[in-house]
Design a protein that fits this description.
The chain is mainly alpha-helical. The protein has helices spanning 2-5, 9-27, 37-46, 50-70, 72-79, 82-104, 109-126, 134-149, 153-157, 172-205, 213-227, 239-247, 254-269, 274-277, 283-299, 308-323, 327-345, and strands at residues 34-35, 235-236. The protein has one domain (2-301). The chain has a two-stranded antiparallel ribbon with strand order 1-2. The longest helix is centred in the middle third of the chain and has 34 residues, at 172-205. The radius of gyration is 20 Å and the shape is globular. The N and C termini lie far apart (50 Å).
């Protein structure tokens, strides 16, 4: 998004890092903050002016604030059945896994395959180890790989500088354009994955923690209302990131705070070396992380596997989400309709 739209590196990294830290502090869980996916795809493919992105972020922030304060999001959460949410999680898991295998793991050729293979073995070996979580070793391996094959330390030293985020007040024309072009395609995905699926995933991974959709929607809104004025990218929470942090050992908000501090450091002191900094996280390593996130999300479907009709519906929703334009909204609407239709049609019949 930074490269496609010409956004200010320092502003994006500082604001993104700040949102991570605040999320970790507010929730006390590895509640991630991540870019809005539909908006990102549109911005990258159409190379939109960043002012439109800021306007779109402000627009969706206002929408989510209304959803939260009025209770609309709670009504949506009651209407959308759990089996459809499982389908959204399953679809996102498939999408992340395919992205990892097609675009990331194979990006560095044979060296990339070797790096990904070693990383995956480390993850399997340390998956349940609370004392030595796999993330530390996988990231360290990626950094060593980067300095051996990709980076010159002098490039990082030469890029040291100090920056603060740029203040920006979105114009009404940019807000309206951003709403139509960016916010409307994003809303169904945000409702399905960022809010409903995230709430469900918190319940799956942290059954002792009660978390409502209104709080998730509220912090979602506040993050975008703030970032739009600080030249940051629009962001959300997400079930995929939550599963990723959990899979690699995180159980508190500390992992998100550490993650955010990394981005804050890059934005404050190393924004001029951004193109070099990102080499510290090789694509094959990111591919393994995405693959683990994807598989973790897909595994959540297990709790409905005994009910064939629900399992079939969840898989259908997932396939629709992955394979159709606006697949998440199609999956949400069609899956919910089919659920209530079958429930009504077969009501009173023996199972």
């Amino acid at each position: 998004m930074i490269l496609a739209s010409g956004m200010d590196v320092a502003s994006v990294c500082i604001v993104f890092g700040l949102m991570q830290v605040l999320s970790g502090l507010v929730y006390g869980l590895p509640m991630p903050v991540q870019p809005l996916k539909a908006m990102a795809v549109i911005v990258i493919s159409q190379k939109l002016n960043p002012d439109i992105l800021y306007g779109g972020g402000l627009a969706i922030g206002v929408i989510m604030l209304i959803f939260s304060l009025t209770g609309i999001i709670s009504w949506i959460a009651r209407v959308i059945p759990k089996v459809v949410v499982r389908g959204i999680q399953f679809g996102l898991g498939m999408q992340l896994s395919m992205l990892a295998l097609k675009d990331y793991v194979q990006s560095d050729g044979n060296l990339g395959y070797a790096l990904a293979g070693i990383s995956f073995i480390l993850v399997l070996f340390l998956l349940k180890n609370r004392r030595y979580p796999p993330a530390l070793f996988v990231i360290l391996l990626g950094i060593v790989y980067a300095f051996v094959f990709k980076l010159n330390p002098s490039d990082l030293v030469g890029g040291i500088n100090f920056n603060l985020p740029r203040w920006h007040v979105p114009k009404m024309s940019d807000i309206l354009t951003g709403f139509l072009v960016l916010s409307l395609p994003q809303i169904p995905l945000s409702v399905g994955n960022s809010i409903l699926a995230t709430r469900q995933t918190v319940g799956d991974l942290f059954p002792d923690r009660s978390l409502g959709v209104r709080k998730i929607s509220f912090t979602y809104a506040l993050m975008n209302l703030l970032s739009s004025f600080l030249s940051g990218i629009p962001v959300c929470h997400g079930s995929g990131g939550l599963v990723g942090h959990y899979t690699f050992g995180a159980r508190t908000g500390g992992s998100v705070i550490i993650y955010g501090a990394l981005y804050l450091s890059i934005g404050l002191f190393f924004s001029h070396a951004f193109t070099h900094i990102i080499q510290l996280f090789p694509k094959p390593i990111l591919g393994v992380i995405l693959l683990c996130e994807g598989l973790g999300l897909m595994r959540l479907i297990r709790d409905i596997s005994a009910h064939k009709a629900n399992l079939s519906l969840a898989i259908l929703v997932g396939l629709l989400a992955v394979n159709l334009p606006y697949g998440y909204v199609v999956g949400l609407v069609l899956g919910t309709g089919l659920y209530y239709w079958t429930e009504k049609k077969f009501a009173g019949l023996p199972e």
